[in-house]
């Protein structure tokens, strides 16, 4: 975007500090660059007039400017692109400005080069930065029960009345002494492995993620206590779970993502957002960072 033209020695000085795009002996400043330089008194212009003009052409100028300004204040040299910034400090990274009323859109993210940083401006004007990258989880646990068990569906669970202890040793279900029980995901998975005889239950898309994680050698348990669909262990349930896994849709509210990131960060786990399309599962690793 070429909005304000500066020529001569001033252009040389500003360009040397990472502002504008050069054409011969002039530079062209984007709206956010112009606003920043006016705010800092490096260009003699009226801030309100520039803001009014820019907002008539760019509805998200407030979000873009607050992120640009924050990155500059943190010491980044910032290159302005159409829908994001490339910030260079110790290394280069793409920053995508968003409002907290926007959405986490996996299809759009898959079309971009990752890792990238979502730069989210809330209602108070504060900015939270989330590092997003694709991740392929992998565990080392492939143990299954050694023999087939019979289960019966009651309510929303499967009950077993023999060999429950054997199931639990293989990290499936719970043994309550008089009986054992399995979630619908666990039961379906063991049935597919021909290790459980049971009726079919109602399943949702979460099962596809459960099965994929189990096939990758992870121990998978409910993540409800953390506000997610699953928690997953790499090696053993005697250690802490490594992942919190949440299944997302094509448009996930950033408020929900923020809550999941906060919880994962607080309990020192890795948050994975699992997105399913046409039978393929992609995992987005999302973490809070301080740029």
Describe this structure as you would to a colleague.
The protein is α+β, with helices and mostly antiparallel strands and 291 residues long. The chain folds into three domains: 4-89, Trna Endonuclease, Chain: A, domain 1, CATH 3.40.1350.150; 100-137 and 217-291, Trna Endonuclease, Chain: A, domain 1; 142-204, tRNA intron endonuclease, N-terminal domain (MutS, DNA mismatch repair protein, domain I), CATH 3.40.1170. The protein is built from nine helices and 21 strands. It has helices at 9-16, 31-39, 47-57, 61-73, 106-110, 164-169, 184-192, 206-215, 254-266, and strands at residues 4-7, 21-23, 26-29, 77-80, 85-88, 92-99, 103-104, 116-121, 127-134, 149-150, 152-154, 157-160, 174-175, 180-182, 196-197, 219-222, 230-233, 243-248, 252-253, 270-277, 280-289. Strands 4-5-6-8-9-21-20-18-17-16 form a ten-stranded mixed sheet, sandwiched between helices. The radius of gyration is 26 Å and the shape is elongated. The relative contact order is 0.11. The mean pLDDT is 93.
Descriptive labels:
MutS, DNA mismatch repair protein, domain I, Trna Endonuclease, Chain: A, domain 1, 291 residues, elongated, 10-stranded mixed β-sheet, 21 strands, 29% helix, alpha+beta, 4-stranded antiparallel β-sheet
With strands numbered from the N-terminus, the spatial order across the biggest sheet is 4-5-6-8-9-21-20-18-17-16
What is the domain total for the residues?
3
Architecture of the largest domain in CATH? 3-Layer(aba) Sandwich
Shape: elongated
Count all strands and give the number: 21
Radius of gyration: 26 Å
What characterizes the major β-sheet?
A: 10 strands, mixed
Low-confidence stretches: none
Alpha-carbon distance between the two ends: 25 Å
Helix/strand-derived class?
alpha+beta
Number of helices: 9
